[in-house]
Amino acid sequence: MFDQVMARIAGRFRRVEPRAAARSYLLGLLSGVERKNCWQLAEQAGHTRPGPMQRLLRCARWDADAVRDDLRAYAAEHLGTDGGVLVVDETGFLKKGRSSAGVQRQYTGTAGRIENAQVGVFLALATSRGRALIDRRLYLPEHSWSTDPERRNTAGIPETVQFATKPRLAEEMIEAALDAGIGASWVTGDEAYGQDPQLRAALEARGIGYVMAVACSMRVRINHGRTSVRADTVAGRLPATAWQRRSAGNGAKGPRYYDWAWIRIGTGNHRHLLIRRNRSTGELAFYLCWSLTEVPASELVRVAGVRWSIEECFQAAKSQVGLDHYQVRHWTSWHRHITLAMLALAFLTALAADAARERPADAHQLARSSDPITLTVPEIRHLLAALFNPPAVTPTRPLHWSNWRRRHQATARRSHYRRRTASEPTG
């Protein structure tokens, strides 16, 4: 299956050298290397220097967006479209300095606070067979980057790339996925995307349903009323009989049960406000829902529960295939590393999906069986790391790399000291 993945993307590389480097890079991402940056991936591949990996990300001639298209089609083929949901969300990449494309002090959920970071907006495909990241956009802050030509040029940001809000980036990715034939019936996302009326209107225009989280302050019209009411006010007026206990899907510890209520809003029959209540704390969450045809409340609850699958994708991508291990600053390099990491994760997800096909579907049969659980993404990567492990090497190679790293680090330290000394005022 790995050879099939490489055959799928081989035509995106004009020369054999970057094609071979891409294969080594992907194998390195699937390996047990502690930090999946160019240095360690080059050492893993048996190179004497990181040059081939760095050239692959920076200046080799290949189209990361075309590989992204291959990845998207590959994920759809292996995950199918059964109950397909497109999930949009963002994740942060903590950075030092101010030279990396798109970096600035901004809030990121990765740290849970304002930090110096890059932010990527991602699209995931979630079906009954699994989930995978299928598209990505690097968010470019408006004031610190969009209006600074010199900074943009240094980071390699194309002139055609202009400021776009995160919902606009999400809309671009969703439109591209639908145009490519991804057979998803729903879109879901958190408040940052649910609060955007233009994104919701674009989805309705495409005839794709959505279950989008919104703030408690969102105002809705109920009972065909002319005045709007806050969502939390609506929830406070509901009788006890309006709440139903339903599962939002299985988690690590079993079904995730919440209390749910739904209310028709607007003037049509296909708009709803869905409200989730935590059974222990009473905390409320709100979702605006729209569908082309009338659907039961259970379907809206299912889609709302799928939203968390993209968080699982981020966790797996960062812990298993080094999504956030890169040490690059250039716009092109970021997109290339992220795309290859997404492809590595999609490969693992496809293996897990294919392995699950051979398992019995009856949960009771599984409970009575002494068989282990189906293969997971972390377990598959662990097995592949053993299978793809390079042969034993003499002490010469690790000693060579140790010397190379320390010489490089010494050069970097001298440069930092020289820059720091030059900036200090003289007596």
TrEMBL record:
Taking every annotated instance into account, which residue ranges of this chain make up the domain Transposase IS701-like DDE? 13-239
* Source organism of this protein record: Streptomyces jeddahensis
Protein's UniProt name: Transposase DDE domain protein
Q: What is the lineage of its organism?
A: Bacteria, Bacillati, Actinomycetota, Actinomycetes, Kitasatosporales
